Amino acid sequence: MRFHAIMLVRDEADVLSEAIKGVLGWADSLWVLDNGSIDGSWEIVQEAAGSDPRVRAWGRVNAVFSDALRAAVFHDARTTFGPGDWIARVDADEVFHEQPSEFVRRLGRSESFVCGLLHEFVLLRGEAEAIGRGEEDLSLPISERRRWWTPNHYPEPRLFRYRRSMRWPGTRGHPWLAGVMATERIQIRHYRWRTPEQARRRWALREAVRGSMPFGGAHWSIDNWRAEGLRTRRDPGVSFWRPGTALAPFVSPSPVTAPVRRFGKAALARCGVQSMVDRVLPGYAPADLRPEPAEIAERYLELLSDDAV
C-alpha cells in the first residue's frame, strides 16, 4: 500500500516548500500542477523535484480553476499507481495533522473514501499589526506563527483508494464511485490566511477568477479579505492550539450515507460490480482542461497594484 498526493498550486510561494516537506513525510509520490503562478511557486516545485525523485513537477497550465484539474494529473500518473494504493488531494496551504499512512490503519475493511475535518487557522488583527511593525519572524514555520483556528464543517474529499478501472473526468472534484465513505474524518490544519500581504494576494486572485469558475465555496465570493481574513481571540468559535499537541476535534454533521447504502456499496465493490460500472463511465478528456481567459490575469495584476485593496 502506497500513498500518492496530487497538489494544485497557484501563488503559494510563502508556504509551498513547507507544504512539500510535510507531504513527503508520508507520501510515496507527490504530483504538482501549477496553474499560472507568478510568485515563484513553479520554481520552488522544480527545485524540489530536482532534489527528491518523489516530487513530480507535472507541468504548468493556465486553466479555469476547479478541483477537477487534478483529473488531468491523475490520468497521466495512474500508470505508477497500484490497486489498493491511496490517492490524496492536497493543497499547498494545508497540513495533515495525522499522517494518512497512520490514519487509514484505523478504517473499516470496506471504507475507502475519506473526507477532511478542516481546522481553519486564522490571522488575528493583533498578529497582522505585529507583522506590519516587523515584529514577527516570517522565517518560522507557519505552524509556529498561526495558532488560532475556527472549525470548517464542510467535508472536503481528501483520500480515496485506487482501483485500476477507476474513472476521473475533468468535470468532477473526485473520481466516479470513489468508494465507501469513512465514518471518521482526517484532521487537517488549513492555513488560508497567513500574512496581510498574502491575504491581499489571495483575495485578489479569487476576485479575478470567481466569475469563470464552474463551482466554488463561499470563501471565493467575499467582498473584502479583511472581513474573513482578520479575526480576534474573542470571536465566537476561535480556539488556541499549541504546536506539538493534539488538535481538539469538533462536532460536525457526518457526510456518511445510511447504513443500508453503505452496505450495498461495500457489497458491490467486493463482487466486482464497481469495476464493471467503471467501464461505461466517462473518464478524463483533454478538452476538460479549459484555458483561462486572458482578462483574468490582467484583472489579477490590476487588483494587486491597487494599494487600497
Polypeptide structure, described:
The protein is α/β, with parallel strands linked by helices and 309 residues long. The protein has helices at 13-23, 41-51, 70-77, 100-103, 125-132, 142-145, 196-209, 225-229, 259-271, 273-278, 294-304; strands spanning 3-9, 29-34, 55-60, 86-91, 94-96, 111-121, 123-124, 148-152, 157-161, 180-181, 186-190, 230-231, 239-240. The strands form 2 sheets. Strands 1, 2, 3, 4, 5, 6, 8, 9, 10, 11 and 13 form an 11-stranded mixed beta sheet that branches. Strands 7-12 form a two-stranded parallel ribbon. Helix 1 (13-23) links the parallel strand 1 (3-9) and strand 2 (29-34). Helix 1 (13-23) runs parallel beside helix 2 and helix 7 runs antiparallel to helix 11. It has one domain (3-304): Spore Coat Polysaccharide Biosynthesis Protein SpsA, Chain A, CATH 3.90.550. The model has no long low-confidence stretch (mean pLDDT 90). The chain has 11 helices and 13 strands.
Number of helices: 11
Percent of residues in helices: 25-40%
Intertermini distance: 47 Å
SSE pattern, N- to C-terminal:
EHEHEHEEHEEHHEEEEHHEEHHH
| Oligomer category | single chain
CATH first level: Alpha Beta
Uncertain parts: none
- Tertiary shape: globular
Over the alpha carbons, how many angstroms does the gyration radius reach? 20 Å
Judged by helices, strands and strand pairing, the structural class is alpha/beta
Major β-sheet profile:
11 strands, mixed
The appropriate CATH architecture is Alpha-Beta Complex
Say how many strands there are.
13
Beta-strand content estimate: 15-25%
Q: What name does the CATH topology carry?
A: Spore Coat Polysaccharide Biosynthesis Protein SpsA, Chain A
How would you state the average pLDDT, rounded? 90
Number of domains: 1
